[in-house]
Amino acid sequence: MNFGIAYFPSKEIQDAANSYRKRYDPHYALIPPHVTLKSSFTIAEGKLSEVVSELKRIANETKPFPLRITKVSSFEPVTNTIYFKVEPSDEIIELEEKLHSGKFEDTRKHPFVPHVTLAQDLTHVEFTDILGRLNMENHQYEDTVDRFQLLYQLENGQWTVHDTFVFGKE
Amino acid sequence: MNFGIAYFPSKEIQDAANSYRKRYDPHYALIPPHVTLKSSFTIAEGKLSEVVSELKRIANETKPFPLRITKVSSFEPVTNTIYFKVEPSDEIIELEEKLHSGKFEDTRKHPFVPHVTLAQDLTHVEFTDILGRLNMENHQYEDTVDRFQLLYQLENGQWTVHDTFVFGKE
Predict the structure, then answer these.
(1) What CATH number did the domain enclosing A80 receive?
(2) Beta partners for A38?
(3) What tens digit of pLDDT does each residue of A147-157 get?
(4) Cα dist. A57→A51, A62, B131 in Å?
(5) What whole-number distance in Å separates Cα of residue A49 and Cα of residue B92?
(6) How does pLDDT run across A61-101, given as a tens digit for each residue?
(7) Residue ranges for motif HXTX 2 (chains A, B) (predicted)?
């Protein structure tokens, strides 16, 4: 079973993202708008409760921190994914690091670029058009990260939340 | 903001449901397969943390209980929704009751029929065809309910999980 860890930003940010995702992100139906903190990983049979305990421990020692979106960006030329760029604060970098060290294997293939995907798998014309439009709009948002969620993937690719880890709780 | 409370059954059940939902449920992209425990309700400004505390209290005093799906059924002639019928155990009835009494306003418009929707808004031909097909298949599943989730609705209708309440914790 594939698991993933994500943060769902405020409704305002999700609504703004969905207005683009609906048409331009093939993953639209698979998961609400999110910031991936740990991409698809597997948990060995019988080890789920151990992982949950470790995530609880990490959430307990994390304090809520601000999340700022200041602009739209893209992964061009690597991919033509367009996204809300999340400012890489010390707190989010530290959190992502904890989810890839200690008891967690470091399976990262790319440096961590926190973001909310708006569009992907675009034609060149779509890419230029959407990025042009987004750059004329104002996309600045502030939010407070106070939790993350462990999700698992269904056979159709859709993600279901298994558990929610609120910061600073036991 | 609209909130709802749902239980997401085992991956096996969700996968079985999605094989029908993908084609026959217009809500497919809005939420993974689920059992609704409390349908869309609002929470007054500033009252979310109170509701979360109450849901924690209810989860704390609830013990994990079995969930059994024994057959496929439909709401005909009221609607042509087709669903996995969840056996209405004492435990699930009691849980649903708690989510509509005490601090929660009782906004129920129908008796509680626990189910996982497979198809809805069908033409008459689709309805007959799908129900016939499902009735020739074996749809018996067992699962253990050990949590429920509070979700909120985005402007596009999609649901995001706000928090997970695991039974019998702290």
Answers:
(1) 3.90.1140.10
(2) A5
(3) 999 999 999 99
(4) 10, 9, 47
(5) 24
(6) 999 999 999 999 999 999 999 999 999 999 999 999 999 99
(7) 115-118
Closest by Cα among A11, A17, A165 to A95: A165
Following DSSP, what letter does each residue of A107-130 receive, concatenated? ---S----EEEEE-S--HHHHHHH
Is the interface score ipTM higher than 0.90? yes
| Residue A47: both structure tokens together | 């080890």
CA distance B43 to B1: 7
Structure-token pair, residue B68: 């059994």
The question of whether A110 is a catalytic residue gets the answer no
> Is A75 exposed, middle or buried (CB count within 10 Å of its CB: 0-12, 13-18, 19+)?
middle
Structural domain count of chain B: 1
Q: B169: pLDDT confidence band, cut at 50, 70 and 90? A: low
Region B48-57: what's the mean pLDDT? 97
Say if the Cβ atoms of B164 and A162 lie within 8 Å. yes
CA distance A127 to A74: 9
Query: Domain range spanning residue A46?
Result: 2-166
> Is the pTM of the predicted complex or chain greater than 0.90?
yes
Following DSSP, what letter does each residue of A1-68 receive, concatenated?
A: -EEEEEE---HHHHHHHHHHHHHH-TTTTTS-S-EEEEEEEE--TT-HHHHHHHHHHHHHTPPPEEEE
In the structure encoding, which two tokens stand for residue A10, read together?
């405020």
Q: Which of A83, A85, A84, A87 minimizes the C-alpha distance to A66?
A: A87
> Residue A153 is inside which H or E element, if any?
strand A147-153
Is B32 in Cβ contact with A154 (below 8 Å)? Answer: yes
Please give the distance of CA B14 from its chain centroid, rounded to a whole number: 11
Task: Say whether B100 is catalytic.
Answer: no
The Cα of B78 is separated from the nearest Cα of chain A by a number of Å equal to 28
**Which tokens go with A139?**
């996309």
